[in-house]
Design a protein that fits this description.
By secondary structure, the protein is an all-alpha fold. It is about 85% helix and about 0% strand. Helix 1 crosses helix 3 (about 40-59) and helix 2 (about 20-35) runs antiparallel to helix 3 (about 40-59).
Length: about 60
């Protein structure tokens, strides 16, 4: 991702804690794919999966 993994984890976690639905966040990665490329979109989606899994376990 170019060194922004920690920031992405933080922002995704914050979005989940604010109540933004998981499906709505997933839709963002479609835009990431278009504008930043497949590799970055897949990496971001993998980070989101781990953040979402942790979030769901904590609820």
């Amino acid at each position: 991702m170019g060194g922004c993994e920690n920031q992405l984890r933080f922002q995704l976690g914050a979005a989940l804690h604010l109540g933004i639905p998981i499906e709505q966040i997933r839709e963002v990665f479609i835009q990431v794919q278009v504008f930043a490329g497949n590799a970055r979109a897949f990496n971001a989606a993998a980070i989101f999966k781990s953040v979402a899994d942790e979030f769901q376990k904590s609820e």
